[in-house]
Amino acid sequence: xxxxxxxxxxxxxxxxxxxxxxxxxxxxxxxxxxxxxxxxxxxxxxxxxxxxxxxxxxxxxxxxxxxxxxxxxxxxxxxxxxxxxxxxxxxxxxxxxxxxxxxxxxxxxxxxxxxxxxxxxxx
Length: 123
What we know:
The protein is of the alpha/beta class and about 120 residues long. The protein has one domain: Dinitrogenase iron-molybdenum cofactor biosynthesis domain (Nucleotidyltransferase, domain 5). Helix content is about 25%, strand content about 30%. It contains four helices and seven strands, in the order βββββαβαβαα. The chain has helices at about 55-65, 80-85, 100-110, 115-120, and strands at about 1-10, 25-30, 35-45, 50, 55, 70-75, 90-95. Strands 3-2-1-6-7 form a five-stranded mixed β-sheet, with helices on both faces. A two-stranded antiparallel ribbon has the order 4-5. The model has no long low-confidence stretch (mean pLDDT about 90).
């Protein structure tokens, strides 16, 4: 089984971006059969936070850009933004660590078996 994860990172090495300030997501594909992951592409988005304000349209635009993604990795995210994304089927992880280490943990700990991931899985 394969699924995709969006990583909020400026360099693709460390999860180092706050969700509201992210202007790009690195997309990784995880393979649960081989327990491997690979970089697929980088997708640009409009920042969800404009000044100190958030607009639902910003969240919806990001969700549309990440429509084939099962989970999002961010360094930090506000409770309102996290709740909104999760209510729309996106699993959210605050994981300010090395990207490879977080993706390996997801695979090795079989976090992909959680039911919420299965609704977005692309085979």
